[in-house]
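Batch manifest line 111
LIGAND: zinc ion
JOB: complex structure
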Amino acid sequence: MSGKMTSLSSTPKTCHICGLPIPRDIVTPTHFLYGTVDHVIPKARGGLNQRKNRQAAHRLCNEMKGNRLAADLRYSEIRQLHLEVLELLRSQRIMVTHKQSADIQQKLGLL
Ligand SMILES: [Zn+2]
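JOB STATUS: finished
ARTIFACT:
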Protein backbone atom coordinates (compact mmCIF):
# COMPACT_ATOMS: atom_id res chain seq x y z
CA MET A 1 0.00 0.00 0.00
CA SER A 2 1.44 3.41 -0.90
CA GLY A 3 1.88 6.16 1.66
CA LYS A 4 -0.77 8.23 -0.07
CA MET A 5 -3.34 5.45 0.19
CA THR A 6 -2.58 5.06 3.86
CA SER A 7 -3.10 8.71 4.65
CA LEU A 8 -6.31 8.80 2.63
CA SER A 9 -7.81 5.77 4.29
CA SER A 10 -6.86 7.04 7.73
CA THR A 11 -9.24 9.97 7.33
CA PRO A 12 -12.07 9.08 9.68
CA LYS A 13 -15.48 8.73 8.11
CA THR A 14 -18.36 10.56 9.66
CA CYS A 15 -21.93 9.34 9.92
CA HIS A 16 -24.10 11.73 7.92
CA ILE A 17 -27.06 11.13 10.24
CA CYS A 18 -25.67 11.60 13.76
CA GLY A 19 -22.49 13.47 12.75
CA LEU A 20 -20.17 11.31 14.87
CA PRO A 21 -17.13 9.35 13.66
CA ILE A 22 -17.41 5.83 12.28
CA PRO A 23 -14.64 3.71 13.81
CA ARG A 24 -12.66 2.03 11.07
CA ASP A 25 -11.65 -0.95 13.16
CA ILE A 26 -15.18 -2.29 13.62
CA VAL A 27 -15.53 -5.04 11.04
CA THR A 28 -18.55 -6.92 12.37
CA PRO A 29 -21.46 -5.92 10.11
CA THR A 30 -24.02 -6.44 12.89
CA HIS A 31 -22.23 -4.02 15.22
CA PHE A 32 -24.21 -0.83 15.86
CA LEU A 33 -21.19 1.32 14.97
CA TYR A 34 -20.39 -0.57 11.77
CA GLY A 35 -20.04 1.74 8.77
CA THR A 36 -22.89 1.10 6.36
CA VAL A 37 -23.77 2.80 3.09
CA ASP A 38 -26.94 4.83 3.44
CA HIS A 39 -28.93 6.02 0.46
CA VAL A 40 -29.63 9.71 1.06
CA ILE A 41 -32.80 9.35 -1.02
CA PRO A 42 -33.89 5.79 -0.17
CA LYS A 43 -34.13 3.37 -3.07
CA ALA A 44 -37.73 2.73 -2.02
CA ARG A 45 -38.38 6.40 -2.82
CA GLY A 46 -36.71 6.29 -6.19
CA GLY A 47 -33.19 7.11 -5.04
CA LEU A 48 -30.49 5.86 -7.37
CA ASN A 49 -27.49 3.77 -6.45
CA GLN A 50 -25.14 6.56 -7.46
CA ARG A 51 -22.14 7.82 -5.61
CA LYS A 52 -23.75 11.16 -4.82
CA ASN A 53 -26.74 9.36 -3.30
CA ARG A 54 -24.60 7.25 -1.01
CA GLN A 55 -23.25 8.37 2.32
CA ALA A 56 -21.64 6.64 5.25
CA ALA A 57 -23.77 5.97 8.30
CA HIS A 58 -23.57 3.82 11.42
CA ARG A 59 -25.69 0.69 11.29
CA LEU A 60 -27.71 2.01 14.23
CA CYS A 61 -28.44 5.33 12.52
CA ASN A 62 -29.12 3.72 9.15
CA GLU A 63 -31.68 1.35 10.69
CA MET A 64 -33.40 4.16 12.59
CA LYS A 65 -33.62 6.25 9.42
CA GLY A 66 -35.07 3.37 7.41
CA ASN A 67 -36.83 4.48 4.24
CA ARG A 68 -36.93 8.12 5.23
CA LEU A 69 -34.86 11.15 4.40
CA ALA A 70 -32.49 12.29 7.14
CA ALA A 71 -34.52 15.52 7.18
CA ASP A 72 -37.64 13.52 8.09
CA LEU A 73 -36.12 12.30 11.34
CA ARG A 74 -37.64 13.88 14.39
CA TYR A 75 -35.50 16.04 16.63
CA SER A 76 -35.94 13.53 19.44
CA GLU A 77 -34.77 10.69 17.20
CA ILE A 78 -31.58 12.47 16.11
CA ARG A 79 -30.91 13.47 19.70
CA GLN A 80 -31.42 9.86 20.82
CA LEU A 81 -29.09 8.55 18.09
CA HIS A 82 -26.46 11.10 18.93
CA LEU A 83 -26.48 10.16 22.62
CA GLU A 84 -26.52 6.40 21.93
CA VAL A 85 -23.66 6.59 19.43
CA LEU A 86 -21.66 8.80 21.78
CA GLU A 87 -22.09 6.20 24.50
CA LEU A 88 -21.12 3.35 22.14
CA LEU A 89 -18.03 5.25 20.99
CA ARG A 90 -17.00 5.72 24.61
CA SER A 91 -17.48 2.01 25.28
CA GLN A 92 -15.04 1.42 22.38
CA ARG A 93 -12.64 3.85 24.08
CA ILE A 94 -13.11 6.31 21.24
CA MET A 95 -13.22 9.65 22.91
CA VAL A 96 -15.20 12.53 21.54
CA THR A 97 -14.42 15.66 23.48
CA HIS A 98 -17.18 17.75 24.95
CA LYS A 99 -16.36 20.52 22.49
CA GLN A 100 -16.42 18.16 19.49
CA SER A 101 -19.76 16.80 20.63
CA ALA A 102 -21.13 20.31 21.17
CA ASP A 103 -19.95 21.37 17.70
CA ILE A 104 -21.68 18.38 16.11
CA GLN A 105 -24.86 18.96 18.07
CA GLN A 106 -24.89 22.56 16.97
CA LYS A 107 -24.44 21.50 13.33
CA LEU A 108 -27.29 18.99 13.68
CA GLY A 109 -29.48 21.66 15.23
CA LEU A 110 -29.63 19.88 18.58
CA LEU A 111 -28.32 22.81 20.59
ZN1 LIG B 1 -24.49 7.70 13.23
